[in-house]
Specification:
- With 92 residues, the protein is of the alpha+beta class.
- It has one domain: Double Stranded RNA Binding Domain, CATH 3.30.160.
- Helices cover 30% and strands 37% of the residues.
- Strands 3-2-1-4 form a four-stranded antiparallel β-sheet, sandwiched between helices.
- The model has no long low-confidence stretch (mean pLDDT 94).
Length: 92
């Protein structure tokens, strides 16, 4: 059993009412009424994404460079979101 950490940039959007956190590399998006809510939801989505990808031996795309994303989305907040996932299929 190996614990793997995945860290990807995510872009925070706000339309005046709703927050949206988009992780473009993985095509994951969540929305809610607070930054905390969308961040916590993204952690759950990421964990599920990576658990499924590892279970079926899916190729996991590398994250985009943070500086590149931050520059291209300079009107938004860009943050790194990180999750740990247990890879049960890894044999030592």
């Amino acid at each position: 059993m190996i614990v793997k950490r995945y860290t990807y940039p995510a872009v925070l959007y706000f339309d005046g009412e709703t927050y949206m956190l988009a992780m473009h590399d993985l095509r994951l998006v969540t929305s809610g009424t607070s930054v905390e809510e969308v961040y916590e939801d993204m952690l759950v989505y990421m964990e599920g994404y990576f658990q499924c990808a590892l279970a079926v031996d899916e190729i996991i795309e590398k994250p985009s460079d943070f500086a590149t994303v931050a520059k291209s989305k300079s009107k938004n907040v860009v943050l790194l979101v990180s999750v740990k996932v247990v890879d049960d299929k890894t044999v030592l």
